[in-house]
Specification:
about 325 residues, Rieske Iron-sulfur Protein, Naphthalene 1,2-dioxygenase Alpha Subunit, Chain A, domain 1, about 20% helix, about 35% strand, binds FE2/S2 (inorganic) cluster, binds fe (ii) ion
Amino acid sequence: MSETQTTAAPTLTPPRPHTGEVYGAQHDGRYLQNWNPLMLAADLPEGEIVGRDFLGTRVIVYRGKDGKPVVQSAYCPHVGADLSKGCLIDGAVRCAYHHWRFGPDGSCVEIPGESFIPQAVRVYSYPAAERWGLIWAFNGEQPLYDLPEFPNLHEDEVFYRTYHHALRPIEGWISASNLVDFQHLKTVHNIPDPNPVKVDFGDHLIVVRQESDVRVADTQLYGGTWLTLHNQLAGGIERLFMAGSSQVAPGWSDAYFVVAMRKSEAEAMGVEAAEAELARRVDYVHKLYAEDEPILFSLRFRGFHKSALIRADKYFGKFLQYMENYPRAKPFDV
Ligand code: FES
Ligand SMILES: [Fe+2]
C-alpha cells in the first residue's frame, strides 16, 4: 500500500536577505554524503528522462529496463548537452546533440560512426533507490548507510502517503536542527513536553527519545537531513511521519514528507477513511512548516562558533558540531 501524491505547496516568498542567500555565499561546494529524495516515484514513468537540480549541478533520473531508478550526472561528457533533453533508446540515454548513448552503469555504449569509444567517456551514476514513494540518490560512490526507516515499525506494517512540499531557501540540515532544538519545540510549536530522555549521535544517524505522562516519541535523523518519527500518545494513538529534503544548491533544499499509520489500523477503517485521516495529518504537517518557515528563511545562521548557546542548547550545539564534522563530498562532475 504505497502511493504518492502531489499537494499544492504553500507559496513561499523568502524575505531578503534570506538564509539560502546568506549561507550560499559561504558554501565551499561540498555536500553532505547522505540519501537525498529527488522526486516522487509516481512522477517517474518508464521510458522518461527527468532532469533535477542536485548538489549545485544537475542529474538525470530514469528507470532502467528492470524498472529500478537510475540517477546520473546530466551534462554529456562530449560537449556538455543536458541529457534530460535526450531520450531512452534500448535502455540507454541518447544525448540530443550528437546521439552518443550512455548505459545505466555510466559507460558510453555508442558514438555514431565510431568503432572506438574511449573508456574515459562516461557519465557518473549515483547510488539510487526507490523507497517510501520517492526516488533517492546518495551523494558518494557507495552509500554510507541504509535508506531511512520509521522507528519501531517495518515498512510492511505501514500505510503511507508521500508528498512534495517545496523548494526552500535553506540548507536542509539547518531546518533539521529543529529536531534537537528542544526550546523551539515549546516556543514555536507549543509542544509542552519536548525534553529528551535520550539523544544518541551515531556516525550517520541521530536517535532521540522523548517521554512524558502523555506520550513517547522516538525520532531518527538520517544523514542530517531526513527525520522519521513514531509518536505514541495516550490511549494507544500513534503518529508516524517522515520529512526532509534533498541538497539542491548552496543554501537551497527541496522538501518532501510522508504521513503514515499502522497498516492494520488502515485496513480496519477502510482505505477511504484511512486516506481521509492521513489528509488531516497533512494539515498538521503544513501547520508545522508554516510555524517554522518565516523564522528559518529569514535567520542569519550563526553556526556553532558564533551562536550564544546556553545549557538548554546542549544537544542543539552538539548537533551543530556534528554537522560540521559530517562527511561531505563534491559532486562528481565538477
Ligand atoms: S554533447 Fe552529447 S553527444 Fe555531443
Ligand atoms: Fe520546528
